[in-house]
TrEMBL record:
Alphabetical keyword list: Metal-binding, Zinc
Name the record gives this protein: DHHA1 domain-containing protein
Signal peptide: none
UniProt keyword Zinc, yes or no: yes
Originating organism: Polyangium mundeleinium
Localisation: Cytoplasm
Cofactor annotation: Zn(2+)
Alanyl-transfer RNA synthetases family profile domain residues: 1-216
First-listed, main subcellular location of the protein, grouped into a coarse class: cytoplasm
Stored Pfam families: DHHA1, tRNA_SAD
Length: 402
């Protein structure tokens, strides 16, 4: 004889956090041992809402799932209570309240987005750390999102009643449902004041004030649709508090009020741009001086290959020096500089030279135990720190295949 389904107490009272039930079966769900009760206040993962957690007597309830037959499985940590045992169930209250706020907030935000932006919800996910709504539109501007968010919070402030019930077939046909139910029998409906009417089997707040606050955290386009990431209740307050802490910390660093942080950051951005421009000008003068000295020495020796080491150099400075050297069309620059615990190396040729920079640097890197390569006209690499670049470069030039 089939074991009857558990009676879901959470449908009648979403704030029932303690109950008694009888173990009617030992089974398994997804390979994990589970028990089923004659009645339960534990909400199973369903409809995008995460499952409850809590305890059955001393055993921790680590997951709650519903199977295709509608039977609720309580996955426990540790030994299962005996069949027929009368057990005391306790729900993780903070977790349930978070889920109630997120789920009710999702209904309200879906309604507001439909009203404000004509954007219907096609799916939603109320995750452990993030909640999302996927819409049937390809774009959603921030102004429309902000208007929808404001509308939801106005309804929250109204402290409107929320009712969840199982209407008769005649009552169901008369209700202005936002979307059609996914089931045909025992359709449960959640009515949020005169704002939204939707079929739903999840746990919800009993008035809109309990949602506390709804905040849109992000908008992004995914798979040709718009995704709205949002938070509600304590989760939204926590995020706002953390962001406020960051803004206050920035204000202290900028020695300004929190409201002046954007202007302070813009000032820093301008100063950074100016500093970069000044650095570029200085780098150009330094590069010109280094390049002129190296070229002068090479010309004095009658050489067209300029080998040099740029002390305390960044890659940008080495590139700038090479650029100055190879401005003279017949010259080749083979340069190195110590940076970040290694040796950066660069080979570049002037426009009239046929020197193969890539082949040269590949051989030099192999000889020095580093890596490098590139095109015939230009190549870069990185060698171990402390190498004698002048000796390595000269030796590589002397090897066959140059």
């Amino acid at each position: 004889m089939a074991t009857p389904r558990s009676s879901p107490l959470y449908h009648d009272d979403p704030k029932l956090f303690s109950f008694r039930g009888v173990v009617v079966a030992h089974e398994s769900h997804a390979g994990r041992p589970s028990v089923r009760l004659d009645r339960t206040a534990f909400y199973p993962e369903s409809g995008g809402q995460m499952a409850d957690r809590g305890r059955l007597d001393e055993a921790a309830v680590i997951d709650v799932q519903v199977d295709d037959e509608g039977r609720i499985h309580h996955v426990l940590e540790g030994p299962l209570p005996a069949i027929g045992a009368d057990v005391h169930g306790t729900i993780d209250k903070p977790r349930r309240l978070v889920h109630m706020a997120q789920h009710t907030g999702q209904h309200m935000l879906s309604r507001a987005l439909a009203d404000v932006a004509r954007a219907e919800t096609v799916s939603s996910r109320l995750g452990e750390s993030a909640c999302t709504i996927d819409l049937d539109v390809t774009t959603l501007d921030e102004r429309a999102a902000a208007e929808a968010e404001a509308l939801v919070n106005a309804v929250i402030d109204d402290d409107a009643p929320i009712r969840a019930f199982f209407p008769s077939e005649d009552e169901l046909r008369a209700l202005p449902l936002r979307r059609q139910p996914k089931v045909h029998d025992n359709v449960r409906v959640v009515v949020i004041g005169d704002f939204d009417v939707s079929p739903c089997g999840g746990t919800h707040c009993t008035n809109t004030a309990q949602v506390g606050f709804v905040r849109i955290d992000a908008l992004e386009r995914t798979k040709g649709k718009m995704r709205v990431t949002f938070s509600a209740g304590v989760r939204a307050r926590t995020k706002l508090s953390r962001e406020a802490d960051v803004v206050r910390a920035l204000a202290r660093e900028l020695t300004c009020g929190p409201e002046d942080v954007p202007a302070g950051i813009e000032k820093l951005r301008r100063e950074l741009d100016e500093a970069r421009q000044a650095l570029g000008r200085v780098r150009g003068r330094v590069a010109a001086a280094i390049a002129d000295a190296l070229v002068k020495d090479a010309r004095a020796r009658g050489e067209r290959v300029v080998i040099g080491v740029v002390e305390d150099a960044s890659l940008d400075l080495v590139r700038a020096v090479a650029g100055r050297i190879t401005a003279e069309a017949d010259l080749v620059a083979l340069l190195a500089g110590e940076a970040d615990g290694g040796t950066i190396v660069l080979a570049a040729r002037g426009s009239s030279s046929d020197f193969d920079c890539g082949a040269f640097l590949k051989r030099a890197a192999t000889a020095a135990g580093g890596r490098g390569g590139g095109r015939p006209e230009r190549a870069e690499g990185r060698l171990p720190a402390g190498i004698d670049w002048t000796t390595i470069a000269a030796a590589t030039l002397a090897t066959p295949g140059r």
